[in-house]
Input
Amino acid sequence: MHYQNTKDFAVQLDAADPLKGFRNRYHIPILNGREVNYFCGNSLGLQPKSAKQYIDQDLKDWAELAIEGHFQAANPWYSYHEKLVGTMAKIIGARDSEVAIMNSLTVNLHLLMISFYRPDQRRNKIICEAQAFPSDLYAIDSQVKLHGFDPEESVIKLKPREGEQTVRHEDVINAINLHGDSLSLVMLGAVNYYSGQFFDLPAITAAAHTHGAFAGFDLAHAVGNVHTQLHTWDVDFACWCTYKYLNSGPGGVGGIFVHERHAKKADYPRLSGWFGNDPKTRFTMPEKFIPAPGAYGWQISNEPVLAMAAHRASLEIFEEAGMDRLLEKSKLLTGYLEYLLNEINNDSGEKKLNIITPSDSNQRGCQLSIVIKNNGKEVHHKLMEHGILADWRGPDVIRFAPVPLYNTFLDIWEGIDVLKSELV
Ligand SMILES: *Cc1c(COP(=O)(O)O)cnc(C)c1O
Output
């Protein structure tokens, strides 16, 4: 695509966009009398207009049917998850039986590490990123301590090389090979929240397996944003939240993937609760846990139906749009953002800003993280005042994430026009 730096060009791309109708399915916040240019879909996705109607239906069923709603509601609560797993499985590239909708992200990470981080004296190391999202680092450290090991020794943190912003793939693989037999688990954010780097999951998984270690990924910034084939790539486990690219509401219900190699083993080590019991016998209240086959066996409690209603509203839109079309548009949008940012440097003859996200579109999703040379924090403040919502992540990054369901090329052109005028 040969991009042009004009408003007309952006408007033309929008007119030709096969997904343009989807924007109207979302509530776009208004500031100073106009819709904001929203680039924070990586933090909190916008609300689907249908979410209210879906939640209202369950509130109505609760009011009118009370306990009967478990089986008689328009969408019976007892089997609500069945309406969600199929679309979720498609989005991440899994089989339906490998997906469960449950809890929230960090809780799920803990539950999965209970199953997949079972260290012993010889094999107790975890490889993660130094620049991982803090919650993941806390989870990892606490798991290591729980098993009586010392995070200083057992947690191996990957860092970018001196002067670089992202971790080189070869350095991930070298670390895996270096720690070899002492490695229990490789646990990375599939897309790093700060830099936007998308790791090579199949190669990392294969390398971990060579040494008898597991590979698990936090998909917080990957799910609904990049192409993954977790089943085919033989990933052991993954977990995600749904309030970012999946637009399912603040604190929305999370999800897990457990590869069927593990999930179909009835005795796989895990923390259990009654909703992970086989639904066929759950209400016979058996004394001994009989796990539901698949990832659903990791479910512990009965499910948060109101949160799942919002999730369902959003997933139906994903189903309609299709990940392939979304990813295609995403590449064009982010490519346009990258082009306009580079134009700022070209026009001014100096590097006023630096994009730290990889320029290879296979190593990123829609997010670009930029470091402003002189007045980053101030520029971010000015953008917000103009209704250009991007987010600030200390120490010095502004993240822009144009998402294909509701962002337009014009959003980007306008946002970067303001950005340019505020740089010194
Ligand atoms: C957003 C995010 C979280 C947040 O965790 P919650 O348990 O949902 O609060 C955790 N890890 C990563 C990598 C994230 O991007």
Notes: The chain has a mean pLDDT of 96.
